């Protein structure tokens, strides 16, 4: 699966299909990035700088996992799910 994300236009290109990213999901992704920056602040300044340099990458990673329902669950085999679904399935007893 090939995924590319344009943050400025809030669009994702998944295997040639364009998907609009909801504004709420973009807000969650930015909050996720801010949490990572704050966590790295307490470790050391160089790590915080490296985290800030990778802002697009970190936000895109979050959106790929949690905003786009394009994954297949390895537990229940459902298609077109996000990682919230996969995380919930992982927590269920077998």
Describe, in short, the structure shown:
The chain is of the alpha+beta class. The protein has helices spanning 23-43, 45-53, 55-67, 83-91, and strands spanning 3-6, 11-14, 17-20. Helix 1 runs antiparallel to helix 2 (45-53) and helix 1 packs across helix 3.
Order of helices and strands: EEEHHHH
Tally of extended strands? 3
Which structural class fits the helix and strand makeup? alpha+beta
**What is the 3D shape?**
globular
Query: From the alpha-carbon coordinates, what is the Rg to the nearest angstrom?
Result: 15 Å
Low-confidence stretches: none
Strands of the largest sheet, in order across it?
Answer: 1-2-3
Helix content: 55-70%
The main sheet comes to: 3 strands, antiparallel
Beta-strand proportion: 5-15%
Task: Provide mean pLDDT, rounded.
Answer: 86
Please give the count of helices.
4
- Provide the number of structural domains: 1
